[in-house]
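This section describes the prediction task in plain terms. A model, or a person checking by hand, is given the sequence of a single protein chain and must write out its three-dimensional structure as a string of tokens. No templates, partner chains or ligands are provided. The sample shown here is typical of the held-out split.
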Amino acid sequence: MSSIITADALTKEVSTGSDRLVILDHVSFAISAGESVAVVGASGSGKTTLLGLLAGLDTPTRGRVMLAGRDLGAMDEDGRARLRREAVGFVFQSFQLLPALTALENVMLPLELGGVAAARETAAALLGRVGLAARLRHYPRQLSGGEQQRVAIARAFAGPPQVLFADEPTGNLDAATGCEIVDLMFELNRDRHTTLVLVTHDEALSRRCARRLRLSAGRLEADERGAPVRLAAVAP
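The expected answer:
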């Protein structure tokens, strides 16, 4: 199976006064199309930095990232932004919805930017798919945390993306709602063959993935594979 993401000796350093802080240190791996991968490790191990580099939101000090067959280091910011728009979806802990837009308009936005003619119809269908057919005209402030994350997932899959990057997507949700959101992401991962790269500190959530990349102090400590474990929702 072909690789959709390749990290080659990925290193990220930042200046702290007269010193250099190494956030990631020669991290290498490849992710195949359609895989579900959890990036795990203690706080400060470099998980979110790695996600940003893989998505082209940041640039490495050394090393290379290949995303969807493209060398991110050989592209300018406009090129990376265009590739993200064409091939990547994002789900964040903080939802990142535009407060002045309705749920429907939030999902329509990337479709309109991508020149999709039937943006409204496509967005409405996606919101129906995530259980929000009755909430199309509601603004984020009128939605619960779980509903806002469902809008964010519908927006992320509007592309539709080849890769979905999720950074602590259940961090602001209660346990039962978090399980529902994770179920939804894995359902879309399975049905659309979208590669899922999930940053989490939750070991139970990481076991939902077929593979775990374990970081420690900026290094890839382990690359673990195993059958995904389906978790039951926690009763409220």
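For orientation: The longest helix spans residues 175-192.
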